[in-house]
Amino acid sequence: MSTVLVIGAGGVSSVCVHKMAMNKDIFPEIHLASRTKSKCDAIAKSVKERTGVDVATYEIDAEEVPAMVNLIRKVEPSLVVNLALPYQDLPIMDACLEAGVDYLDTANYEPKDEAKFEYHWQWAYHDRFKEAGLMALLGSGFDPGVTSVFTMWLKKHKLKTIRQLDILDCNGGDHGQAFATNFNPEINIREVTAPARHWENGEFVETPAMAKKVEFDFEAVGKKNMYMMYHEELESLAKFNPELERARFWMTFGDEYIKHLTVLQNVGMTRIDPVKYQGKEIIPLQFLAAVLPKPETLGETTKGNTNIGVIATGEALDGSGEKTFYINNICSHEAAYEETGNQAVSYTTGVPAMIGSAMMVQGTWEGDGVFNMEQMDPDPFMDMLNDHGLPWQVKELDGPVDF
């Protein structure tokens, strides 16, 4: 039992807070803060209507460390759950260190002026958290997060070593919009337009964005084009699985999404450098994000399923030679909306954030310092996935992937 302070009020935060309220025995007191308090109030209202649980709300600029410290000291949580933008990870970690409280997030730090998702900025905090007797858990979403837990579960129960790893992220949902992103538009477009990188033979290999496309038949979705991208869990997976020969991340996109994104790139709307407009500096991508549909508003219209999983090939734990396993979750947009008022992309990140928080506040996962999901025992997390709306399945494939 513990008090938690959640930072951020988007779709992921909404799901996480709803799920925390549904587990009052673990989270008896929930506090929610964001730059826009009205968004917090809307989430709190929905939580109250759905669960009867009260959520306290606050206005906060998460980049203002003194203000964050004051709020943390006022609330006195045992855990700060950072579901804000990746730019805000470091100031929130600084505030946690100063206020003496544990930290959790779902995505690694990224500088505002460069689309570069890397863990080294946060790994550099390890000694400071260790010396303070505090724990910071990085990447407790789905990808990163569940995909890493899936991988380590396979390594604990099925494979002695992992030679090849492919992460497959498919959103088969249809939101009925001409163009919209299923999570924060600014972060989504920065990810998609950045150069692709994959791990191969001990180093990262960079290729042009969206240059490699493969068709894959996803259960409960059908055949979809998926594109090789860079995603931050490749960095931590390679670090904690040094035997990996190759690791890749794939995400599906429809032809309409690609067409619209190409036009937006060509006219400069995905730029992240400032431009002068009517005497003021604006960031084109931030302006675009402001006019696109908000992901948290897409739940009611989104139909279909997500299918996210990991295909791993390596030496079998039972000594029977090389084997390949596919472990994944299928999540319904309609079911996610019925339960929490949010679509499945938010749901698949918000539920793992709640589960990671539960692991920490209950003392199931412990440690002093900064940790990635790969360093934790996967079994209790996997059990909670089954119990809290993200059931998983695992099957053996005939052999390694041929793409």
Explained architecture:
This protein has 403 residues and is of the alpha/beta class. The chain has 2 domains: 3-138, Rossmann fold; 146-342 and 391-397, Dihydrodipicolinate Reductase, domain 2 (2-Layer Sandwich). 36% of the residues lie in helices and 26% in strands. It has helices spanning 11-21, 37-51, 65-75, 89-99, 120-123, 126-132, 146-157, 185-193, 233-240, 255-266, 284-291, 333-340, 344-361, 378-387, and strands spanning 3-7, 29-34, 55-59, 79-82, 102-105, 135-138, 164-171, 196-200, 203-207, 213-218, 222-229, 246-252, 275-277, 280-282, 305-315, 322-332, 369-372, 392-397. Strands 7, 8, 9, 10, 11, 12, 15, 16 and 18 form a 9-stranded mixed beta sheet that branches. Helix 1 runs parallel beside helix 2 (37-51) and helix 1 (11-21) crosses helix 13 (344-361). The longest helix has 18 residues, at 344-361. The N and C termini lie far apart (47 Å).
